[in-house]
Amino acid sequence: MALLLLFVIVLHLVTLAMLFIATMEKSWWAWGDIETSDLWHKCMFDNVTETWLCSSTSESDWLQAVQALMILGVVFSSISFLIFLGQLFTMSKGGLFYLTGLSQIGAGLSVFAAALIFTFLHQEILQDTRELTLGHFGYCFIMAWACVPLLMLSGVLYVHLRKRA
User: Fold this and answer.
1) Where are the domains of the chain?
2) Element (H, E) at 119
3) DSSP string spanning 87-104?
4) Measuring CA to CA, how many Å separate 158 from each of 14, 17, 56, 74, 88?
């Protein structure tokens, strides 16, 4: 049981770190190694100074929805971990971690919605940028999609986890 508890804690922390990186890092859409776009900025690599030059992305309703849902996912997952720690020390023996699991599943559903919106509406979200056929989804977008099943798995494990000691 202690091994399962350790596994769930490590899974939660790894997923939370991945979720935070996917929300804040600079690669939801990439045009090779010279230009990227994320939820917050559009960046170009300047060969002369060998630095990234970034500007704010153009605001659209869909981009704001993706931003809000990703932040909501981070908040739900963070709150879920804090609830778990509180329940771990205050819950009576034999209790289930329902609230923690439901919060983690809520995080998974919000990240799923954000990634789904970006998947189907990336042309509209990236409207001011250059030719989209020359670009591809970046690693943060892929990381967001990878977080969805991990968050759901973590939530289901929490729902079935009983406090033993």
Assistant:
1) 2-25+59-160
2) helix 98-125
3) HHHHSPTT-B-HHHHHHH
4) 15, 18, 38, 17, 11
* The model's pTM: 0.86
Q: What is the pLDDT of residues 77-113, one digit of tens each?
A: 999 999 988 888 887 776 778 888 999 999 999 999 9
Assess contact for 16 and 165: CB atoms under 8 A: no
Q: How many CA atoms lie within 13 A of 122 on its CB side?
A: 20
Q: Taking Cα atoms as reference points, which of 136, 142, 139, 145 lies closest to residue 73? A: 145
2-25+59-160: CATH topology? Butyryl-CoA Dehydrogenase, subunit A; domain 3 (1.20.140)
Strand-pairing partners, residue 52, are 45
Euclidean distance between CA atoms 165 and 150, whole angstroms: 26
